[in-house]
Each structure stands twice: as C-alpha cells, then as structure tokens.
Amino acid sequence: MPEGQVLTLRELNRALLARQLLLERRALGVQQAVERICAIQAQWPQSPYIALWTRLTNFKKEQLTRALTQHRVVKAQLFRITLHMTSARDYPYFATVVLLAARDATPGVPKEKMDELARRAREFASTRTVTHEDLHVFADEMRGFRWRTRMLTPLVHVLPSGTWDFYGSPQLRAMEAVLGVEVPPRDAGAERLVHRYLSAFGPATQADLVRFAGVRVGDVRAVLERDKLRRFRDERGRVLLDVPRGPLPDGDTPAPVRFLPKWDSSLLAYSAPERTRILPDELRSTVIRKNGDVLPTVLVDGFVSASWDLGTKRDLTITPLRRLTKQERAAIDEEGERLVEFFRS
Question: Which DSSP string corresponds to 206-258?
Fold first, then answer.
C-alpha cells in the first residue's frame, strides 16, 4: 500500500486479528508465539494459558508450564507496571526501556539516587529469592512509592508463580541470575520494543505505543522517526506507523469466534479512541471497568460481542453484549464447549 493510504476500521481489525493469531490458529512453539503477539497480560493465572489456547493449534497447558520451567518464557512486572509474560529473549530489551522510564518518572527522587537503589536491589535479588515485601525496604528512600520498588531492577517470577493454579505471593530473582544475561543498551531495547509492538498490534499511533508500554515519547522517538517504518492514516486522519511487511488482510476476511481471557492485550494495546478496532466504543465501559478490571470476552466477526464466565463448577455462562443471530450464538456455543474441555483437561 502507498504511504498515507487510509485504512478502514475493518481493515485495522483484520490486521490486528492476523498479527494476534486470531484469524486462524497457528502451529507454533510457545516462545515463538509469545514473541509474535509481543506479550501476554498475566494478572489472572489462567489468562496466559487461555490466550495461547485461543491462538495455537492443539495447545496443552503443560506447554506453557514447560516454557516457564525452562526459562524460555518469563513472568515479570513490566508494561504499565503490570504483570506480563514475555519471551525470555525479549524481556531484557523490554525491561531496559520500561523500567528505566518508570524509575525516571518517580517523583522527587534524583536520578543518581534511583541508580543507586537499582544497583542495591539487583545485588539484593541476585543471590536469593525475594518478595515484594522485601523490596519495600527501598520505599522510604523512594518517597514512599512502594509499588515502584518492583521496577527498580529486572526481576523474574520464580515457579510456581505463572502456573495455572498459582494465586500466592510470588518469589522473585534478578533477571541476570535467572537468564544469565545483562541488561542491553537502552537504544537496543527501544528498537526491539517498537518492532515487537508494531508487528503485533500495528498499524498504530505513536500514542498507542507509549500508552501500552508505559514509556515516554522520548524513549522511542529515534526509532519511530526512521524512514523504514510504513505510515498510513485511519479514517479520522491520524498517522499510523507500521513495520515494513506487517500483514494487512482485506476487511472482509472471515473471522472466526474467539474467546479472549481477562485483560487480553489485544483490548489494551491502544489508547481509548483506537480500541474501537476490536472493542466497540459503546461497550468500552462495560468491558473495561473503572477499577481496571477487564472482562473475558468473545469475538464475533472480529469484534467484542459478548463476555463469558466459568464458575467453580466449570459451567460456561455467555452474556451477549449486542444482539446475536442464531448462527452466531451456535458458533459461540461450539467454541465454548472447546474452552470448557480445555479448562477441565
């Protein structure tokens, strides 16, 4: 497509579905799949497992558990200071940008002090496992920002955190001790972040990227200004950035019913106006609650059309968010049976 080509809402929807492996399930390894979709939101223990089940052919729970055990995929505090799973190959690059941005944005703490605290936190977690409570020892020196102590240095969750049934307090270790790698240069991290984000969620605006990652424009500006990125416009006239060979399916490409877990990144990868490419604006306040909770949802023809819930007895409840045809409801029920079977496996 030529530079400046206007992409319709449905074209942007299909681009997102294709890149998020939601147009058709793919036969990929767990680490490769996680790299393709950039990252998986991981506050709810089952979310990463469901996210991969809905995207991959013949996915089994033990595949993700094995990838965590082998440190091919890691769980960590990352984008927007929330829990994510990423490929172990990507995490150091993401962390060098995201954690530095979070540290720099801590009010009232000089950079030299933050650098010292980061060094101490790294040493603290290099020879032992630590907890979030342990990290709060640094809070007084960070003007009481207890939550931000989690972003002082790259920290990886230790098993069983990240597994299907784990709801306890996590144990953490320094990334260097777990993965055996050092933090890469910040510029290299910015380049990897931009490439992964646009490959997984593009075409997207600059504002979408910095909101998703929780970074500042200055952290990624040099990468975004490079000529090798494609530039389009949406129907509102906003500039959209994209990687050179990102797929752009036709807007009429058939899209199957897909179940998304709580906090699926495909719903959260954009600033509010851009979420309409998958989440109709009239449903936004229903799906994304004021407390930050995000419902598990059902995509019909590529857009959020229902929410779902599995009670303690694993009885699936579908709540339509718009009028569904008999054919659409039948397709939801058929896919829902497969989800129940996955939960029970």
Answer: HHHHHHHHT--HHHHHHHHTSTTSEEEEETT--EEEE-TT-----TT-----E
Q: What DSSP assignment string belongs to 49-68? A: HHHHHTTBTT--HHHHHHHH
Of the candidate ranges 31-35, 81-85, 104-108, 296-300, the one whose mean pLDDT is the lowest: 104-108
Q: How far apart are CA 211 and CA 23, in angstroms?
A: 25
Residue pair 333/319 in contact (Cβ under 8 Å)? The answer is no
Confidence of residue 78 (pLDDT cuts 50, 70, 90): very high
Interatomic CA distance for residues 101 and 97, integer angstroms: 6
Strands (E) across 64-158 are located at 73-77, 83-87, 155-158
Residues 6+ apart with CB under 8 A from 313: none
pLDDT digits (tens, 9 = 90+) for 267-318: 999 987 779 999 999 999 999 988 778 999 999 999 999 999 997 767 899 9
Return d(Cα 230, Cα 9) in angstroms, integer: 18
pTM of the model as a whole: 0.95
Q: For the segment 115-145, what is each residue's pLDDT rounded down to a tens digit?
A: 999 999 999 999 999 999 999 998 888 888 8
DSSP state for residue 308 in the 8-state scheme: E
pLDDT for the residue 234:
94
Question: What b/e string do you get for 235-268 counting C-beta neighbours within 10 Å, with b at 16 or more?
Answer: eeeeebbbbeebebbeeeeebebbbbbbbbbbbb
Tokens 């530095």 belong to which residue? 100
Q: Where are the domains of the chain?
A: 26-179, 258-344
pLDDT tens figures, 179-228: 999 999 999 999 999 999 999 999 999 999 999 999 999 999 999 987 78
CA 332 – CA 316 distance, rounded (Å): 11
Q: Is 180 exposed, middle or buried (0-12, 13-18, 19+ CB in 10 A)?
A: exposed
- CA-angle at 270, arms to 31 and 342, nearest 5°: 45
Tokens standing for residue 74: 């890691």
Transcribe 9-77 into DSSP letters: HHHHHHHHHHHTT-SS-B---HHHHHHHT--EE-SSTTHHHHHHHTTBTT--HHHHHHHHHTTSEEEEE
